[in-house]
Design a protein that fits this description.
The chain is built from 5 helices and 5 strands. Strands 2-1-3-4-5 form a 5-stranded parallel beta sheet. Helix 1 packs antiparallel against helix 5 and helix 2 crosses helix 5. It starts with 11 loop residues before the first helix and ends in an 8-residue tail after the last helix. Bound molecules: iron/sulfur cluster (SF4). Iron/sulfur cluster binds next to helix 4.
């Protein structure tokens, strides 16, 4: 929200506008198609008809320019890390990150002995929600998206906290 962020006194009008802004953001979490390894299969499944992520207003886009959310699903190598950061930087604000699965959270099964794997995507971009599992089921990802929506609803855009 730029200069207006967190600047106005709480009153009925501003509080309602604030809620409306948050509601519109949480209801249109368009996520960028991005998967690097096996967790990506579960992500695809979450988007398919059985789980139907569209129900939550979360549809995929194939470009960072129209995406609010990046779901990092899979192992990120050091070689890949620059690209992930670049894609994140190209997304417009406000933008959100879900780390899906142990690899994105901490390096997963490659944490100990691999020289090439990033030990958590939060080393290069800020993560809003961590979804545990190797791989997490689509239900776990949906739970992560609901948690992100709850977090967005708590944000103060205009009203001073
Ligand atoms: S967390 Fe497990 S399932 Fe997901 S990408 Fe890593 S190894 Fe594959």
């Amino acid at each position: 929200m730029g200069v207006l962020e967190n600047s106005l006194p709480p009153n009925m009008l501003f509080t309602t506008v604030d809620k409306f802004l948050n509601w519109s953001k949480k209801s249109s979490l368009w996520y960028m198609l991005f998967a690097t390894a096996c967790c990506g299969i579960e992500l695809m499944q979450a988007g398919a008809s059985r789980y139907d992520l569209d129900r939550f207003g979360s549809v995929f886009r194939a470009t960072p320019r129209q995406s609010d959310l990046i779901i990092v699903a899979g192992t990120i190598t050091h070689k890949m890390a620059d690209r992930v950061k670049k894609l994140y930087d190209q997304m417009p604000s406000p933008k959100y990150v879900i780390a899906m699965g142990s690899c994105a959270n901490t390096g997963g099964p490659f944490f100990k002995d691999s020289y090439s794997v990033l030990k958590g995507v939060d080393q290069i971009i800020p993560v809003d929600v961590y979804v545990p599992g190797c791989p997490p089921r689509p239900e776990a990802l949906i739970d992560g998206i609901i948690k992100l929506q709850q977090k967005i609803m708590e944000k103060k855009n205009l009203v001073k906290s």
